[in-house]
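This protein record is not my work; I was only asked to verify it. The record follows directly below this note.
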Amino acid sequence: MSSKRVVIFAGGELSPEYFNLLDEDDFIIGADQGALFLISHGYTPDIAVGDFDSVSPEALQDIKSKSKKTITCDAVNKDLTDSEMALDIAMDQQPDSILLLGVTGTRIDHSLASIQMMTRALQRQINCYVMDTHNYITLTGSQAVINDLGYTYVSLLPLTPEVSGITLDGFQYPLTDATLKLGQSLGVSNKLVSSSGTVTIRSGLLLIIQSKD
């Protein structure tokens, strides 16, 4: 099966406002509490996946009855988080892009793991995005067009020890053939000066984080 976009609702920070982002043709995956969030708001996940250790037995039965397909696993003997299982399923759909919602929140370990998961989608040449109330995050190993989505800042953070050949077009603070090393903050809090900007790099992996307070 091929789908233009897969949207994953995980068990972190979620808002009913996210439903405004959905298109009719989206393939929707609910991971653990994300599946419960979907059905509680009248949405039918194409697939619900997880160990479901954070929902009651009654809620799990509700998820199973109101999802097109449910995939469960043991809560203890598993190697992947619920979000990573959802990502694997999403990539199997061979989409053009994957939007991850509810993968950030109070657990910084889960948040960082979810952000790092984007490298796996990039290896499959699938555009992947992480979004929450204050941030919109993507990853590039070559070039990315950054559209003004209403966020205040655009920050660039290396995900590899070094990112070289960074050139920015359409930003308040331009860069030409620059290098960022892990731990440097040179790329933090830039701004777009028009409706879009372009980030080009020669080597490495670069996180592009649009954010607002």
User: Anything to note?
Assistant: Helices lie at 33-40, 57-66, 82-92, 108-123.
